[in-house]
Amino acid sequence: MSRTPDRFFIRRTVLLGIAAGAASPAFAARQRIVTILGDSITAGLGLPAAAALPAQLGLALARLGTPVVVRGAGVSGDTTEDGLGRLNFSVQADTDVCLVALGGNDLLQGLDPKTTKANLTAIVQKLKARRMGIVLAGMTAPRAVGAGYAREFSAVFPAVARSERVAFYPDLLAGVGPALRQGDGIHPNATGVKIIATGLAPIVARTLKLRR
User: Average of pLDDT values for 83-92?
Assistant: First the structure.
């Protein structure tokens, strides 16, 4: 003959189930995602993964009390046109903030700054349409490429940030002088990457906060 469970047993079973569920991933808060859409500088060319920008930015954000998953979507050699072409594939739908760090290869190839500006504008607008937070990293062209070209190219990034009203980090390589670069004189070494990550972290953290 079966016996009906008493109310205490039923209540205890339900409460234990709730407690177990609260500890499961389904009940846990979703971890924030930052994706870096970039080129070889952000991909960490010449460095182990642990020393590359995605890992170092994640550490810098954690030190600020903003734990996130940082995804690297940097492809060596990519121009702004290349980044625009692979945007939907490279920046996954669960991204909270996308750091756009492209333009270095446009500069190396001497591309028309107007083309770079149009591509960056299109990238930002596509990310906006996907309701993602955006941080645009700028780049300062050396005068060795020609004063006029350097001035026009460097002006592209703040102009896009202003017109599209997105968070802006003025110079991706700020503070990363020759001694903090690899033998090619372009790509940062491990110490240089840490400087970049430390500079970017506060603005990325603020952008994430605005997304809550």
Answer: 98
pLDDT of residue 211: 80
For 140-154, the pLDDT digits (tens) are 999 999 999 999 999
pLDDT, average across residues 15-32: 49
**Are the C-beta atoms of 110 and 149 separated by less than 8 Å?**
yes
CB 167 within 8 A of CB 206: yes
Q: What is the dihedral of CA 194, 195, 196, 199, to 10 degrees?
A: 120
Instruction: Count other Cβ atoms within 10 Å, centred on residue 20.
Output: 10
Give Rg (Cα) of the chain.
22
Instruction: Please state the length of the chain.
Output: 212
88's CB contacts (< 8 A; 6+ apart) are: 126
Which pLDDT score is estimated for 29? 64
Indicate which residues carry an active-site annotation.
40, 184, 187
